[in-house]
Amino acid sequence: MAKIIDAAIMVFSVNGYENANITDITKAAGVATGSLNNCFGNKEKLGAYVTLVMLKHTMPPVHATIDFDDDPILFTMATVCTYHRFMMETGGYRQFFIESLKYDFIFNYLSRVPNNLAENLIRHYRNDADPETVTLRSQYLPYMLGRTLILKQQEGYFHDISSADVAYLVCREALKDFVSEKAIRARAPEGLRIALEICDRLPARPSMETIENAVRISL
């Protein structure tokens, strides 16, 4: 599976998701088409694994820079800004990312992955909070907001909203039940600075170790 995902990352980065050819992916991986079908079943699930790999690629540098419990707002801001900037501006995956939002397989598959943010918010701020409600407000609603903004920008709307603005709005949506907007806004410049520094040194291609760790998760 890891070899196929690695090949898919290369093909998706060049062709995007829509124009990526399964034959090109299997050829780059050195496997038969049947192997891809047996491992993933369809191109959408393969795309979901690629998205998961990118999340696992961008998060460790944030963890190495700041701990959630030291500053939950800054940690969340830096995490969102790093992933968003890497996918949209620095990693070469812009078209793939936009099309993954269009087809919504991020939501369809990654919603099955445990939501660490919700767990951390409950633990840090309010132990009596309902986990399902926190997951809805800290994961699903922020995702839908970011998805809407990015896709509508491709249609010609919201040109005055920058990439950093999108990341900020997503973070505000995720955190607003726990902290004030003033506190979120105060951390935004530092979160963006951390993201810029991480993206400047983050390799464009995830390591095989990162890919293999993602393979262990069942989507």
Give me some keywords for this one:
75% helix; 219 residues; 0% strand; 12 helices; mainly alpha; globular
Question: Nearest-angstrom radius of gyration?
Answer: 17 Å
Into which percentage range does the β-strand content fall?
A: under 5%
Specify the overall morphology.
globular
Q: Total helix count?
A: 12
Helix content: over 70%
In terms of structural class, how would the helical and strand content be classed? Answer: mainly alpha
Verbal overview:
- With 219 residues, the protein is mostly helical.
- It has a domain at 51-203.
- It has helices at residues 2-15, 22-29, 33-40, 43-65, 72-90, 94-103, 105-110, 116-125, 131-154, 163-175, 181-201, 208-215.
- Helix 1 (2-15) crosses helix 4 and helix 9 packs antiparallel against helix 10 (163-175).
- The radius of gyration is 17 Å and the shape is globular.
